[in-house]
Amino acid sequence: MDIRKLSDTEQPPMELLLLADPSVLLVSQYLKRGECFVAVVDNEIVGEYVLLPTRPDTVEIVNIAVAEPEQGKGIGKQLVKHAIQNAALQGYKTIEIGTGNSGMSQLALYQKCGFRMTGIDRDFFIRHYSEPIFENGIQVVDMVRLSQDL
Ligand code: COA
Fold it and tell me: Is 34 helix (H, G, I), strand (E, B) or coil?
């Protein structure tokens, strides 16, 4: 598997981006300001993440997804580790990520990759999304914020 930056001439992998974030508007906004990296197997994009500078010295993984048939095979972990190394190489001091209150497996993955919880952005998903979102039978209302020093 190869992880590389999406080139300016390539179409962003919208199906994957929307798997992690159902808002077409938010996704297209942060794609303009961030960098999208893709995981490629046999010439097919099977995963992606988007790194977005948010504050001085700080970057955030604002979107990460692996194609459903390829989930659970370690690709997500490789993408998170790649994002951490990539951010460090670019000179950032802190990397952040957020996930919904219902994201049990995401919370496990991010903590296994060294992230620690820093706070809860209460009602984030109510403020930013017009439709209710459910995951694991739980409404996604609050965002759990995590970060790690680089
Ligand atoms: N308890 C403990 N560990 C858990 C767990 C649980 N309940 N659920 C998952 N994990 C661990 C796995 O064991 C694995 O760690 P390991 O390698 O040490 O065993 C790790 O979390 C995830 O494994 P991996 O196979 O690399 O993840 P993946 O390729 O399936 O990608 C996502 C993870 C989240 C990117 C993927 O499931 C996805 O695209 N989901 C839909 C989009 C999404 O929710 N994106 C995130 C938005 S915040």
Answer: coil
